[in-house]
Amino acid sequence: MIETRLLRQFVAVAEELHFHRAAERLHMAQPPLSQAIARLEQRLGFTLFVRHSRGVRLTPAGSHLLGTARTTLQHLELGVQQARRIAQGQAGELRIGSLALAGHPALLDGLKRFRKCWPAVQLSLQQASSAQLARLLLEERLELAVLRDVPELDERLHRHLWREEALLLALPSDHPQAAQASVALADCAEQPFVFTPRALGGRYHQHLLDLCRAAGFEPRIVQEAAQLQTVVGLVACGFGVALVPASAAQANAQPGVCFRPLHDVQAPLPLYLAWRAGDGCLARQQLLELLTG
After folding, report:
1. Which of 5, 82, 253, 265 has a CA between 20 and 30 Å from the CA of residue 217?
2. The CATH number of the domain covering residues in 167-267
3. What confidence tens digit (pLDDT) does each residue in 33-58 have?
4. Is 92-163+270-292 in the same CATH topology as 4-87?
């Protein structure tokens, strides 16, 4: 292995072709520089310079090594500069996970402002369920996630309550209750329901069950779907009704389904920003400040 210090000393002598001038350029005395070049030649096993009374000249091997040394030092400097920019949150990649992006205009606006402020930071977006997003955070495959279900007892994750949104009832457009401006959840006791699986968000799934039970009934779940877009599509096909966040209604509007507020439910759904504890990613912190400021 050759230290970068020796490479810099070699380049200085090779460019000056004079030990005294090279030593002045490096702000060091000549004898230590001569000794350093001699150690480098000994380590390499071949001669780099031919010494003469007026200075030195490069050997063919020295001329070849000079190009390699310059390229190596240049790449190292560029790498250090890029690493510094990444450490300062001015470059690199910021990986963000979210539930349905289209349903959260505040998130899209934050991403737009972030790209304007830090255009050299590459934003990588991924859509997944809350459970999947939490796992991706813990596996260090995301720096920030927008989700509903954060394990409270997991000290590896920090969370910030970012938004609260209303819960709506999705029902087929030809459903008798579709003509009403709002509906009561208690009136849906006999309706078939479409749910997302518990495994994709246990707290969210349990929250919906608790609301139904508080309204006096156990929901009859006839179909489950991993994505809210599919849930809404199944409602449009007449499989049943579904409880969905307002953001999902905004993002998944389609023919054959309508959304109505629940006038007997006062339990807004929380939406969290989550990230790993101890993660010093400055780019993530800058995005957080834009989203929460």
Report:
1. 253
2. 3.40.190.10
3. 999 999 999 999 999 999 988 889 99
4. no
